[in-house]
Specification:
182 residues, Rossmann fold
Length: 182
């Protein structure tokens, strides 16, 4: 069974003074991918960062809420995390096991932090991992553009030495086509 993890698409993740690469396009593709998952009755899980220790994304505040353009349906699940890894100290692994999910599609923010850490953690927990290569984003840094960071991670994830299953990076459209064939 497949599950879609949408990581940290919260208001505090996207301050106006630090625009991220192609946020509008990424959100449109995530919504499209999530709708395809829901049509197949696959689980969609929104991971929300509880940034109490960092004094951002504080639970119950506007900053903690999912961004308005991201579609969340009532049957979607929410999992709260406090570190980069969506598994560490959360109920995520138990939820996935109880739903018999062995394949994860991963999307969201930030490519080089929570998305990357969760991808690596999922691989090491023997999940089949598919990264929606055009459904994650990050900020540009003073020394590296967001586009390069995203391309770099999409490349590296495909070369990680897995414990069981090799990660694959596919576009939103490729993943939707694969879902429709199943």
């Amino acid at each position: 069974m497949k599950g879609l993890l949408i990581i940290d698409m919260q208001n505090d993740s996207f301050p106006e003074k630090m625009p991220v690469h192609d946020l509008e396009g990424v959100v449109l593709r995530i919504n499209k991918l999530a709708e395809s998952f829901r049509k197949k009755n696959y689980l969609v899980i929104h991971i929300q960062h509880d940034g109490t220790l960092q004094n951002s994304c504080l639970p119950g505040t506007h900053g903690w809420q999912l961004i308005p353009s991201l579609i969340k349906e009532p049957k979607d699940l929410l999992v709260s995390k406090t570190v980069n890894d969506s598994f560490y100290g959360t109920e995520l692994k138990n939820v996935l096991e109880s739903e018999h999910i062995d394949t994860l599609v991963i999307a969201g923010f930030a490519t080089d932090f929570c998305v990357d850490t969760t991808v690596r953690s999922a691989i090491n927990k023997n999940y089949k991992v598919l990264i929606a290569g055009d459904c994650h984003t990050t900020f540009s840094r003073s020394f590296l553009s967001a586009e390069i960071i995203i391309r770099h991670h999409n490349l590296v994830w495909g070369y990680l030495i897995p414990t069981k299953y090799k990660a694959e990076v596919k576009t939103c459209d490729e993943l939707i086509a694969q879902l429709q064939e199943a």
